[in-house]
Amino acid sequence: MSGRWAGTDWSIDVDHGTVAVESRTCNLRVSGSHVSSLRAQRSLLRWHLCVDGRQTLRLRGLKRATAAELQAAMRRAALDNEIAAAVAWNHRVTAARSTATQQQRWVAREQVEMLSTTRPDPGLITQVADAKVAPLLSSEQSAAVAALGRDIPAEFAELNETILAAELRDRRDFFARIEKSPLTDEQARAVVSFDNRVQLLAAAGSGKTSVMVARAAYAVERGFVGPDKILLLAFNKAAAAELQERITERFEAACIPSTGVKAATFHSFGLQVIGRATGHKPRLATWLDAGEDVATIERIVDQLRDADPGYRYRWDLYRFLFAGTPIDLESGTPDAYDSATKTSGFRTLNGGVVRSHGERMIADWLFLNGVNYRYEQPYCIDVSDEDHSQYRPDFYYPDADVWHEHWALDADGNAPASFQGYAEGIAWKRRLHAHQGTTLIESTWHDVVFGDGLQRLTQDLTGHGISLDWNPDREHSDGVKPIDHGDLVRLMRTFMAHVKSNSLDEAAIEGRVATARRKLSGFRTKLFLDLYWPIHREWDRLLRADNSVDFEDMLVLAAEHLERGVTDMGYDLILVDEFQDASQARARLVRGLLQRPGRYLLAVGDDWQAINRFAGADISVMANFEDWFGKGPQLALTTTFRCPQTICDVASGFVMQNPRQFKKMVRSAQTEPGPPITLIRATDVHKAVCRYLDQLSDHVADGTVQPGRNGKVTVDVLGRYQFDRDTLPHKKLSNLTITFRTAHGSKGLEADYIVLPRVVAGRYGFPSEIADDPVLDLAMASPDDFPNSEDRRLFYVALTRARRQVTLVTQIGRESPFVVELLRNGLLVPIDDQGEPATEVQVCPTCGEGTMVRRTSRYGPFLGCSRFPACKQTINL
């Protein structure tokens, strides 16, 4: 836009974004945004040119109509740069759309975000809307300004859907032949959605490997990424080898070059990163390469215990007293019943029964110290009356005539709200002892569990002449099993994996302790850390002596080199398998590979199968995908080619009870819904498993069950622990291939029939009651507080290994909480240990967590809750 305005002694030329003013008294040339400082303004009967509000030049002879034109022209000139920017931006948007449409290529978020962030200020739309200014724009300029109001993300999302539909149609042959079986629409969509960051939730048996292989092939065939720019990362050597083999085989079948495509484990690739960055590839510690990490920790612990009696004492103290003790005052389920006193409680190491887990901790400490005590000995003076029974203090020490009350008080000195009159009772007991002149010592639950309560108790007892003789090898009751030495060793290894993966040191952990919830900042935590850090330091010393690295340090070091830009591995397409098992160190390594623009990540995983927390996996990486890697579509593979719909429905509903799990509906590719999940309720689990397998073998022999291609039916027996192997039959069945695995070891595998033996309640049940120690929260980003969350996912994994049917075996009276939950929801078909339909199993109407079991008393038969003594519900027969 250009024009000239003149009066008797002045002239103003407007040429696009420049305004030139000439007169006898004023020569002015203004361009760009400074033009906005000019204004033709009328004062009284005169027009003036004002600059920044000051009158600079009288515009003699300027008419009102002409003044309006001049004013509009100057406003238009002031906006010239912005309008030009809008035109250029609109050209880029149009070109991006045109290129994507012509190439039929998904527009990645990186490009969409660039277009969105470089958009000129949409306020320009309002600025040019003036009736005098708008006509001064060309049609191209008007369209460009109007385009500033476009919803770019929505517009390109719609375009991507159009491109997706076209690709699925035009490349139908590619998707049909790139794998041995044609890709489903879900799988093909995951291949075509070639965004910078894609999270793919893959249900069990949904063909995630097919998507990874096909996406790599698609990228090469379309020319998006060269084969030498593609990296596939897996979590173990077998998975990496399978990926490499599948890439070679399927690329060759499709006549696509695969040379350069690399499949590797995180660990082997991390070593390569360090080697590239430093010129010296490190060596993995020999004991780690041999899978002896836990064994090495155990050797370190044994050496520390042998060298330092103080360390040995602290280790045994934590193992016997603290490791298995709940950290909530009102938690803990009674596990014993005293028929003499008709009370439920907690079994102690000496075989007694006490009323609370806090009292059990005191009783076990006294037992381990060889202290002679009596539990709830009647007070030496009869104080009972018509409303109150005789007073019985918690502990009595006859060798010193000392009474001991252990108060159920928290850090603030408060008892649980349900303990009515508890404070008054404490005051009465104290007055009684003072009045009668009897000696009373006191302890509180909080001080013993989190403070110096045991130290003060030691001082109190020795001050009254009671000798302590600590001996963790004392023979204890057969019915009581402290936390196993090996379990505590494994806890130390798990804690180490998280500490190292999250790049934490002693100062960082102490910082977390200082800000942690109160229950993680007391004596219990200090005791654990006093045990852990010597192990950590000795582990690192062994690494230095061996001139080697461990898995976690290696991944962190590799990630640091990538993050600092010391090296770049040059991969443009990264595909990560089993992403639910990623640690923070692995996540950092992947993020480091993606620092340069124009790179693409496909992270494939299933949060429902996140079962490796013990190995350092952190499910928060998957849950917080966008925080780690940036925004991108979350897609899902919800069709399983493995399980029938019955198993899909039961397993999916079960795992989604945890609200933190991603929601998805899993559909089976099988046309028949499949048989229900059966539950064998047996008195002898081994015999029940053997009888079931015998019957299955008979059904194969008589043709009721069809064998596989090799004439056999495959059966996997999946135990929660290795010792569940003893449930297998000793004889071979000719038409069955029977394999024992742990549930953890079954991940990624499948069989025709799945048997879960010993699905029972208890410390070594399913779920395991060997709960993760809360101290692990100090080393983790986001702990999952849902009850039995890890075992719930493990149970889902076990169920979804089956191609045909799942059978659970439980012991009558020891039914697992998982079994009870499924029974309560009508999702299991019970049969007896002869394989015959069982009478309907009745879930306890009171607690809802146990089953009603037939028992007999002196009054005759009755039904009692299997959770007795935690639940005392009975039904007379």
What does this structure look like?
By secondary structure, this protein is of the alpha/beta class. The protein has 6 domains: 2-78, no CATH class; 82-157; 176-282 and 552-640, 3-Layer(aba) Sandwich (Rossmann fold); 289-308 and 484-537, no CATH class; 325-463; 645-841, Rossmann fold (3-Layer(aba) Sandwich), CATH 3.40.50. Helix content is 39%, strand content 17%. It has 29 helices and 31 strands. Strands 10-9-18-19-8-20 form a 6-stranded parallel beta sheet, with helices on both faces. A 6-stranded parallel beta sheet has the order 25-24-26-27-23-28, covered by helices on one side. The chain has a 4-stranded antiparallel beta sheet with strand order 1-2-3-4, covered by helices on one side.
Topology, please?
Elements lengths: L1 E5 L3 E6 L2 E6 L3 E5 L6 E6 L2 E6 L2 E5 L5 H15 L1 H24 L5 H9 L6 H4 L11 H9 L4 H19 L1 H6 L7 H8 L4 E6 L5 H14 L8 E5 L2 H17 L8 E4 H13 L7 H4 L3 H15 L1 H14 L13 E3 L4 E5 L5 E2 L2 H12 L5 E2 L19 E3 L4 E6 L14 H15 L2 E6 H6 L2 H11 L21 H17 L4 H10 L7 H24 L4 H13 L9 E4 L7 H10 L6 E6 L14 H4 L1 H5 L4 E4 L1 E2 L4 H11 L11 E2 L9 E5 L2 H17 L11 E7 L16 E7 L8 E6 L32 H11 L2 E10 L5 H8 L4 E4 L19 E6 L2 E6 L8 E3 L1
Helix pairs in contact: 2-5, 8-9, 9-10, 11-22, 13-14, 13-19, 13-21, 14-21, 22-23, 26-28
Can you give keywords for this protein?
877 residues; alpha/beta; Rossmann fold; 6-stranded parallel beta sheet; 29 helices
